[in-house]
Amino acid sequence: MINNRNEAQTRRDLIDPVLYSKGWSNELTKVEITPGKTEIIKGKPVKNIGRTDYLLCLPIEKNPPLPIAIVEAKKEKESPFIGIQQAQIYKKKFNVPFAFVTNGHLFCDASEDLKEISLDNKLENFPTVKQILERYINLQKIDPNSSKSISLVEGYKGGQNQVYYYQDAAIRKTIESIIQGKKRILLSLATGTGKTIIAKHLLWKLNKGEGFRKALFLVDRDELRTQATTHLQGMFGDDAQIISSRDTLFNAKILIASYQTLNFADEDKEHVFWNKNFPKNYFSHIIIDECHRSAWGRWSKILEDNPNAVQIGLTATPRLIKGDFKIGESNDLEISANNIKYFGEPIYEYSISAAQEDGYLAACEVYKKFTSIDTAIFSKEEIKEKSRILSSGDKPDDEDLKEKYSLSNFERDLILEDRIKAMCKDFFESIIKKGGPHQKTIIFCVTDNHASLVQIYLNGIYNEWCKKNNDTPKENYCIKCTAAEKNPNAKDLIADIKSSKNSHFIATTVDLLSTGVDIPNLENIVFFKNVNSPISFYQMIGRGTRTGEPRGSKLLFRVFDYTNASRLFGKDFISNSPSENDDEDVHQKNEYKIVKVPQNEFKIQIINEGVSILSSNDGKEILIPYEEYKINLAKKISNEILDLENLRNIWISRELRNKFLEKISENNNSILLIQEIEKLSDCDLFDVISFIVYSNNPLTKIERSNSFIYKNREWLENFSNESMIVISTLAKQFSIGGIEELESSQLFEIPEIKSLDGLKLLENEKYKVNSIITDIKYRLLK
Questions:
Q1: For residues 733 and 701, is the Cβ–Cβ distance under 8 A?
Q2: What pLDDT does 228 receive?
Q3: What is the dihedral of CA 300, 303, 307, 313, to 10 degrees?
Q4: pLDDT of res. 616
Q5: What is the pLDDT of residue 268?
Q6: 64 burial via Cβ count (<10 Å: 0-12, 13-18, 19+)
Q7: Residue 132 dihedral angles phi and psi, to the nearest 5°
Q8: Considering the domain 150-350 in this protein, what is its CATH number?
Q9: 495-542: per-residue pLDDT in tens?
Q10: C-alpha pair distances (Å), 437 with each of 428, 430, 676
Q11: CA angle 423, 432, 493 (to 5 degrees)
């Protein structure tokens, strides 16, 4: 008769012994850790376990074991085939060809070398290490113990913990493809997931194998080149060098360049510097970072001149579906099409939603807004009456103006000061409500003129706020960072934005900060410009996805979307034909004057469309309204508890509480996210949950601690005076770290308790010490 073992017991009693008997020793059986789940330790969120049940690895002589298979464990009473979908997802994410699911008695095999899933196999017949090795060789045509596989099995410099599982998966997939003869390789990973880290470790491993002579790491911006140089020189030392026109020796194995340093500017049609110094097939390996940017107009000759090289493209580009296109959008379509046409489909993909579920990228909260005149269409006569030419201040003539102006013209050739100032005021008031004015922020603007005006208005609003609140304004509160800035130049401004903690809080920009700038503690991304390009949009969003410094210190970032840019989340990009475009000359060369309508001509209202949370559905990013997100979580919690009393009893038991949190937080930090959004960081998670599910008024940890004595006076009178002091002091610890604080092994080392020999005092009471602690925890939550 089958016993009712839970998953942990099934692994321990049934699965582990069989795996061990088949040669899968502890060294070959790993549990991969991601920061997906969260535990609360001393009242603070600590990202912790998000895992597969087993990651089986092949033994490799003198090298770390090679990941090869996923084994998904189920409860003993569950049918193993119900875990097939999860196992297949993990198989793809971890880049292993074999996937199994077992309940300790039967196992299912959903591996790549089978034509169909094999069901109802006896676990005693689970494949051995030798059998899996043979299957791997037959499937992949790769022998991990041969000389051709040296780069595949080579360990990482500094150890296996230098890379996250998805980075390792992408690297292994790339090397497997190279061994199999593939020359053109495309990797697609979300912005913020460490493509440069992947590149440096990939080059390290390739350098240890066959066929490696000299590699080129190619970028399209100075900031990316600087970042890459730091990483690669940290890995290779002097064997990684920047290409410079002043040094034509290029002795290093790893050369780093932007297309500008290679003189691949549009005006250099002959590519003299390149042709003189880099003959055909000079490089054995080429890696193109951000290969969706400018690759085909400017870099194609580099690839054409190295046809024998392994060419690897790194991109965060969303997939685009080619159709007719609007003016201004053809570049996206062309680049995307060229990427796929040249490299083929990505061999490994890791999306922003997958990274958020794993906990490697911060969650995203979206505030959608628009202004009351966004739908207005202004006639030439109306604008002529109200406006002045921007450059001269003169009243415009008929020939200076278009026949009509609509949303697509705003801030480009029609500057509406009332609209700009209303948006600035609304944004500033929003961040005041979210914690104060000193939050790292990027505001994407339409033009350099627009960015300047936003900077001016925000600094004015900030100075007024400081005056009203008797605060001293911070210097350089809001700065403009565009390519047009010369003093200080953009490079210096970017450094200040990244590193300064007491200045440079808000940066207005056009395109300059959309890529290549890593600001880990960026809290807000603001769209004051219309965005039609999914590539550009995802790059802009990528500025906020980092989880902070130290890593994991930032749970979420916010998007303030005044232009409906967030519609591009997870959408396949199918453009309209030019004939369907309402205003075909939006991005064409401007033959008209740029005019400005000064303040106090329009009454502008900001209309809120609500708050949304970025989530995923079938691997695609979707925006879920915050209230729906909260309701969904409440339903999930309600399925696990009977009532508030049941929750209270779960919460006072560390074991039951951890199991409960594990069930409801399996793939994300939902409760912590709501705790942050609702500004409940001073509350124990018990109050956050009771607020979500039962709409109870949440009490802070201090409020619960302070009310303990008067709520429990009658109970406390059962104890001696000294014991009452000890119990009251114990209860005060709740105010420090919540329920976890009362589970500390150092609880009775608190000076006030230790001086009274508190442990001995309580042991002399008629209750047991553990029972008293449990009682205190329960009463604190009443």
A1: no
A2: 87
A3: -120
A4: 74
A5: 57
A6: middle
A7: -65, -40
A8: 3.40.50.300
A9: 778 778 888 999 999 987 766 677 778 999 999 999 987 778 888 888
A10: 7, 9, 17
A11: 70
Determine contact, residues 495/521, Cβ cutoff 8 Å.
no
Query: pTM of the prediction?
Result: 0.76
Tokens matching residue 694: 């039962």
CB under 8 Å to 45, separation ≥6 — which residues?
Answer: 38, 555, 669, 672
Helix, strand, coil shares of the chain, percent, nearest 5, are 45, 20, 40
Question: Using CA atoms, how far apart are residues 250 and 277, in angstroms rounded to an integer?
Answer: 9
Give the sheet arrangement for strand 98-102, strand by strand. Answer: 29-30, 54-60, 63-73, 98-102, 106-109, 118-122
Identify the three-state secondary structure at position 284: coil
Which segments of the chain have a pLDDT < 50?
1, 37-49, 318, 320-330, 573-589, 667-668
Assigned CATH topology for domain 355-374+410-571+596-617: Rossmann fold (3.40.50)
Mapped onto helix, strand or coil, the DSSP state of residue 193 is: coil
C-beta atoms surrounding 584 within 10 Å: 13
Q: What is the DSSP letter of 672?
A: H
Assigned CATH topology for domain 7-140:
tt1808, chain A (3.90.1570)
Residue 760: what are its φ and ψ, rounded to 5°?
-65, -40
Query: What would the two tokens of residue 148 be?
Result: 């051709």
In angstroms, what CA-CA distances link 623 with 114, 434, 567?
37, 20, 9
